Predict the structure.
Amino acid sequence: MSGVAMSNKKTLKINSGKVSTVLLPVLFGVLVIILWQSGILHKVLKADTFTLPVPSRIIGIVSENMPSILRNSAATIKVAFGGLILGSLLGYLLAMIATAFPKWGAGGLTIVSAFNAVPIIAIAPIMTNLTKDFSRDPNTRSMLAKMLVVMITCTVSMSINAYRGFNELKPFSEDLMKSIAAKKSTVFFKLRVPNSIPYVFTALKVSVPGSVISAMVSEYFAEYIIGVGRQIRENIVLAQYATAWAYIAAAFVIGVGLYIILLIIEDLSLKGRR
Amino acid sequence: MKKRNCLKSLFTLMILISAIVPVMANGAQEEGEVSYYPADATAETVVVDAASKGQVGNWGLGNEYEIQALLTKYGQPTTYLSQAFDMDGFDDDSILAASAMTYNELGLVKNSYDGGYGYGDSVKVIDMNDEGVAMLEDNLFCTKEFAEANPETVKAFIYASMKGWAYACANVEEAAEIVFNNGSSVSPDHQLYMANEVKKLVETDTAGNPVSEYGKMEEAAMAQTLELAKKYIKLEDSVAADKLKTLTLDDIRDASYWEAAEASDGSFSVEKSSVKIQLKWLPQSQFMGYYVAKDKGFYEEVGLEVELVPGGGDIGETTAVYTGQVDFGTTWVSNLIAANAGGMGLIEVSQLYQRSGLVLVYKISE
């Protein structure tokens, strides 16, 4: 797990450095798009405009098929977001339990993290089979199956990070609580929970892109045909690369969009801490 | 104090959610007996019933057009359940009318050898050929560009491949064994079953008449395939969709290479001697003619060194041929049509399967 806890308080400080950290990647992206549109990128990659259509063509297809792209994107976002919430809540809960029972808690979490090693393509068909009796409506039961896949991929990073947040306290703070004979629950809610918030965001930074990816992969195996990932696959198999790229662009917007929303929420909620 | 209560209720909520999810997952198991179809049920009865319940299955990914044509024929919407590559969905009744290839899935459903479900005669099928919605499947194709630059190679490849197919159909057991020894993904029993069924598809046309010339392009069947493809292939790219409407048979097939190969005495001066063919799926009797031609040295006789590249999963055989990773490919005619609509200049040079191998399989009540 890449559960790198931020050495908190430093990130996202608004200063002149932020301009360059945002501006340079954006400029690089613009440069890539210019090279792509002008065909230089194709020469470098030895690609043709059939399998790698130019951006203007992709944008053309996106604008022609807005309703369809929005419908599929909405399905993917629902799955990614629903799974993210379920997985994160479950992960946080596991971390709470592990903290409440420290003797086996840490070891238990190691076992939980083994779940992260199971590939999505192995879990997705299993979930599709397990949820077959959930609803008569294939869309509903597919949605649940996909969310459960995303949930599994999001649980581990949250449980490990939240556990660290609950336990990596400032050395004196726990002693202080003890010295004033604070109850266990008080220590938990007044000290551990607030301390875990930055760690929660660290977990979410891993989980949010992960949730979008696993939502799209789980769509491959779902009974009901919908979603950005499924459309990418259908169109590539049918050799409709330009259309597939339109959905890849949609996937990009979803992934980056959710990540930016997360950064904004983090910025707002951690404001008082810097 | 307020904040603490808030956290407490959040905690309770989390416990509730984690408790509810598994209960919900098991909650809806109310339905009891699934009623199957009477043995004498008509195709219409089965299709209308299964479609109205939303329980017609297909794999999608370009395999769905015949099923959609069938659904349309009986006045049903063209939506279907996405079927996995196994038949578990049919087995557990979540799919009442499941897509199956006669030579593959149908064998697994009926037979009880390793990997089979053993349904025997308690299942029946709706045949796309009988329903008049057949589309031609496995063919042999390359790019127009390749065919024009290497006409002798194309003819030689067709000549040797058809010799392989003829030998395979005449010696089915030996052909199945050859395929099995070439890294089979399925059991020898299933490989033999498949070889027998594939023989039927190669030697019978859509009307059930015998075909003696292997790889012949039957105009009427090709035309029906193109017509249905134009109707049911849905492309969101308007450029490709417009092109699809204008495609004619001459844009997708060229019978001259096959005719020349048929008329040939077997000697060719090939332009390119080392060629590859991309198969549509894993090594199995579906492609037995090519395996036999290679194993029996038919390719060597015409001066070709041939590599058979197995497919599987999401291998795009049209893309592999288009990008030049391989020289030849085998695909369904509808997939070639979609690829050409998208802008690939592919050309069918031979049509192996003379009738559709796709059926809808359903269970009957005894």
User: Anything to note?
Assistant: Residues 43-134 of chain B form one domain.
